[in-house]
Amino acid sequence: MNEINLTLKLSSYTKAELPDEIVLLFEQAKAALKDAYAPYSKFKVAAAVLLDNGIVVTGTNQENAAYPAGICAEGTAMSTCASLYPDVKPKAMFITTEGRNKNKSIAAPCGICRQRLVETEYRYKSKLEIWLGIEGQDIIKINSAKDLLPMAFTPDDL
Q1: How distant, in Å, are the alpha carbons of 48, 62, 116, 157 from that of 36?
Q2: DSSP label of 146
Q3: Which residues are catalytic?
Q4: Are 128 and 121 in contact (CB under 8 A)?
Q5: Where are the beta strands (DSSP E) in 79-137?
Q6: Are 58 and 29 in contact (CB under 8 A)?
Q7: What is the pLDDT along the chain (158 residues), one digit of tens a residue?
């Protein structure tokens, strides 16, 4: 038997250390939180995506009483980008919450969203920076969606 170890390299930033375009994404994601529809979990999530043309698109989680029918903020944002700007690659995504989870900490994308983000990288043949943070805490940067899902299923596997 051979043991294989996978590692994840993250970077941590204070808000003051963030590049200006990422501060803008953070602010837009925080502003979008008001539009989240989370009457069941009470866990509001928002994502802001910076496209290669400079446009920022936001998305929020949209819950449904039939739980599997809801959609995460990342999915809403990426679907909106692909629908409105199908030929423009996304460069970076900032994901934030109201910080109301048990540990009042940042939240990483769920498994479905990780797959969706890897598919976005595959589609545009470009890495997507993922930034995670809530107000008052350090911000985490993940260099690529593939870092969150290292053994991702892609069209190459079909």
Answers
A1: 13, 6, 19, 35
A2: H
A3: 74
A4: yes
A5: 90-97, 129-132
A6: yes
A7: 999 998 888 999 999 999 999 999 999 999 999 999 999 989 999 999 999 999 999 999 999 999 889 999 999 999 999 999 999 999 999 999 986 666 667 889 999 999 999 999 999 999 999 999 998 889 999 999 999 998 888 888 99
What is the pTM for the complete model shown? 0.93
Pull the structure tokens for residue 145: 């969606």
Sign of CA dihedral 27, 29, 33, 34: positive
Domains, the chain, with CATH or none: 19-157 (3.40.140.10)
DSSP 33-75: GGG-B-TTT---EEEEEEETTS-EEEEE-B--SSGGG-B-HHH
- Spatial separation of the C-alpha atoms in residues 21 and 39, rounded to whole Å: 31
φ and ψ of 137, to 5 deg? -130, 160
Token pair listed for 2? 């051979």
Q: Three-state SS for 99?
A: coil
Token digits of residue 13:
């930033």
Convert 71-108 to b/e letters by CB count within 10 Å (16 or more is b). bbbbbbbbeebbeebeebbbbbbbbbbbbeeeeeebbe
What six digits make up the tokens of 75?
């999915």
